[in-house]
Amino acid sequence: MPTPERRPLLAAQEGIWAGQQLDTDSPAYNTAEYVRIAGPLDTAVFERALRHAVAETEALNVTFGTDGTGRPWQIATPAGDWHLHRADLTAEPDPQARASAWMDQDMARPVDLTRGPLFGHALLRTAPAEFLWYHRVHHIALDGFGLSLVARRVAQVYTVLMAGDPVPESGFGTLESVHAEESAYRESARHAADRAYWTGRYADHPPVATPAGRSALPARTFHRHAADLGPAAAGRLRAVARDLSVTWSEVLLAVTVAHLHRLTGAPEIVLSLPAMGRLGSVALRVPAMVRNILPLRVPVTSDDSLRGLAPRLSRELRAALPHQRYRYERLRRDLRLVGGQRRLSGPGVNIMPFEYDLKFAGHPSTVHNVSAGPVDDLAVNVYDRADGTGPRIAVDTNPGLYTESETAAFQEGLLALLAAALTDPDRPLGAPRAHRTVPVLDGGPLPGPARPVLSLIADH
Predict the structure, then answer these.
(1) What range does the domain containing 208 cover?
(2) What confidence score (pLDDT) does residue 352 get?
(3) In angstroms, rounded to a whole number, what is the distance separating the alpha carbons of residues 388 and 60?
(4) Sorting pLDDT into bands at 50, 70 and 90, what band is 2?
(5) Where residue 294 sits, what CATH number does that domain have?
(6) Would residue 406 count as lying in a domain?
């Protein structure tokens, strides 16, 4: 019997493997979304399309193991006879609530990386002509962009099967091509230049401030509070961004920085910014896990307006993006920020601009995120949807650091500040307050609000 093909892990997979080993039964690295399909669906043809797409997605047909030295490897392992869960929920009093409850239950299942499968799928009928396609995958296999490639492929294959046409090639590249490109990058002058940029930018080890003021052990779940901006607010967001000569996502980043400054008093906010890491890369065609984290440090004062802060943030971001392939984990080692509470960056802002205008044999759909993976501290997730309804802003928090009510209050305060900033971009974003010292995750004390976080948010 031939030995299964094995290869080293991609750079982004190494950190996830290590994180999972800290708690092998944790489901925290499960990521998922559901696609609401408006229209009748041929469920048998859909399952054929889904199985076709899974079979040709290399990253979904692997398992993981270690050698005698403890080094992890990725092993080619056909997913085999996996099950598509189907359920007709139309007779339920609240089909959507029942579907959400089922998804939550499925998300709580840990994945055995040594056995697989690394994914799960369900097709839930919630109305006579409406279906939810739920797909879950361990983050070690796919990042958000990889998940979007698979979703597009399922829609494409379903559409051609319904038309009776031959299924075209996927156009997917191979995991080996991504690994070869990563190896070449590590030996390149570009890698050295990127390292020099990051180690120079963070040589002074800037302190990391968060609303919690402390760190916690990785959690198996998270709190979430979400809201939609709505078409009118989304239109205003884009108009103000054009006026300021920045992108709408940079406006949201700037408002988040200002909100964090209000809560912590920190003179500089260091965000964790997930980056696709695929620009100019073969990985643009490969469903895989290659996402990186960029630390983004932004000076801020209570006198800053959106007109002043957004361009400052934009300049910092645009200086960093050309260096986005240099791994966050490697930078932490370079700066000797490994272990304990020695953080390189703080709360995250995850802008997900993937176009999800999927049609299933002409039937439109909308995509809804269920989980973007584990939350170390606090994360603002922004989902830009293609149906014209405006971005959805979901705040996820580590339950070891924040309560449900604190999570909701943070999100509500963020949206209130955003509304004020869009109404008057020249208005100072800070709030008058007395000061005290609050702890930060690395470094000395910083000035902070004298009143509790929830009281401060409630005023805005």
Answers:
(1) 176-354+372-458
(2) 83
(3) 32
(4) low
(5) 3.30.559.30
(6) yes
> With bands split at pLDDT 50, 70 and 90, how would you rate the model's confidence at 156?
very high
CB atoms closer than 10 angstroms to residue 91? 7
- Tell how many helices (H) and how many strands (E) occur in the chain: 12, 17
Phi, psi of 379 (to 5 degrees): -135, 135
* DSSP-assigned beta bridge partners for residue 366: 36
Mark residue 213 as left, alpha or beta (left: phi above 0; alpha: psi -120 to 50; beta: remaining): left
Average pLDDT of the chain is 90
CA distance 221 to 157: 34
Q: 304 or 387, which is more confident?
A: 304
pLDDT, position 354: 63
> Quick one: pLDDT at residue 388?
63
pTM over 0.70? The answer is yes
Do both 308 and 419 map to the same domain?
A: yes
Residue 313 has pLDDT above 70, yes or no: yes
Q: Where are the alpha helices (DSSP H) in 202-305?
A: 231-244, 248-264
DSSP characters for 302-346? TT-BHHHHHHHHHHHHHHHGGGTTS-HHHHHHHTT--STT--S--
Amino acid type, 134: Y
The answer to the question of residue 366 being in a domain is no
Q: What residue has token string 């830009």? A: 384
